[in-house]
UniProtKB/TrEMBL annotation:
The keyword Ligase does not apply. Keywords: Signal. It holds the Pfam family SoxY. It comes from the Bacteria. Residues 1-32 form the signal peptide. Residues 54-163 form the Ig-like SoxY domain. It comes from Ancylobacter oerskovii. This is Quinoprotein dehydrogenase-associated SoxYZ-like carrier. Residues 194-282 form the Sulphur oxidation protein SoxZ domain. NCBIfam families: fuse_rel_SoxYZ (TIGR04557). The keyword Signal applies.
Length: 288
């Protein structure tokens, strides 16, 4: 009996100790996570303060409030292809128009992912694409309005290694199909018919291109692949500009853009090029 009581007492003490150690470990891990999160947030803020003058000079950047919304995953499934979507909507009675939109990934080696310039008197727009995110970072969308003001919103995304992640295709296969382009309208029941699209319809533009960042390693030679990426795109409807883009290494492999436009029934034409001087083009013919 005494032996049984002693074993039981020992078991209880052991279980209590294990619970205490587990709780202490969990508390320590939570504390470490909180500290790491605070450090990342602080670093991200410091990064932006250092980065802002290089991108926008001394111009003030305002909190966009509801003018600009940015959607992105809190934790990315694939750091090399993080989906982001931006909407800019000016309220009724606001006479300003939307001129530019800049996408920034604070902690990337080349933070400015792309700058878009819009034609026409745009008072609302939607734009979606995929970005590389190299480490825990804020992604920022900064809209420039016709009065010169900069309106910004941001979202914190947990991802790492996006800029150095190996390309999905080997270099030979990637270069074989480089520049192949698909262009279509994204609207249920009206794909390919620019004459029936509402002004909220979107064009989806896909370009085959490895968009090498210069930080990726060839898995066979173990040498870094030189940077090679789509650096400009221009989309016109007839002679009228829908948008133009200047891009960098933070755009993902096989660049994919979706953007809203106001259809006129005229042909939509795309001219694009990369840092090696290659030129690509495609067109979407209206129905009939």
């Amino acid at each position: 009996m005494r032996l049984a009581k002693a074993i039981l007492a020992t078991s209880i003490m052991t279980a209590t100790l294990l619970v205490a150690l587990t709780a202490a470990g969990a508390a320590q891990e939570a504390s470490a996570d909180a500290t790491a999160g605070a450090t990342v947030d602080a670093t991200a803020g410091a990064t932006w303060q250092a980065l802002k003058p290089d991108v926008f000079g001394e111009r003030p950047v305002f909190d966009a409030g509801t003018l600009v919304t940015l959607s992105a995953p809190v934790r990315a499934e694939d750091a090399a292809m993080v989906p982001v979507e931006v909407a800019v909507t000016l309220p009724p009675g606001d006479a300003r128009t939307i001129q530019k939109l800049t996408l920034i990934v604070d902690e990337n080696p080349a933070p400015v992912a792309a700058t878009f310039t819009f034609g026409g008197d745009r008072r609302d727009l939607a734009l979606a694409t995929r970005l590389r995110v190299n480490s825990y970072s804020y992604i920022r969308a900064v809209a420039q309005l016709s009065d010169g003001s900069l309106q910004m919103t941001q979202r914190f995304v947990k991802a790492s290694g996006g800029c150095s992640a190996p390309a999905m295709k080997d270099e030979e296969a990637a270069l074989k199909n480089i520049g192949q382009m698909k262009l279509r309208l994204v609207q249920p029941g009206q794909l390919g018919d620019a004459t029936k699209a509402s002004r909220f319809a979107r064009v989806q533009l896909m370009i085959r291109h490895p968009n090498y960042s210069g930080l990726q390693m060839d898995q066979v030679t173990r040498l870094y692949i030189p940077a090679k990426y789509v650096d400009h795109i221009e989309v016109k409807q007839g002679d009228a500009l829908i948008l133009s883009m200047e891009g960098g290494i933070s755009l993902s492999e096989d660049p994919n853009l979706q953007f809203s436009f106001e259809p006129t029934g005229q042909q939509i034409h795309v001219d694009a090029g990369d840092t090696d001087g290659r030129a690509f083009e495609g067109a979407l013919q209206p129905a009939g």
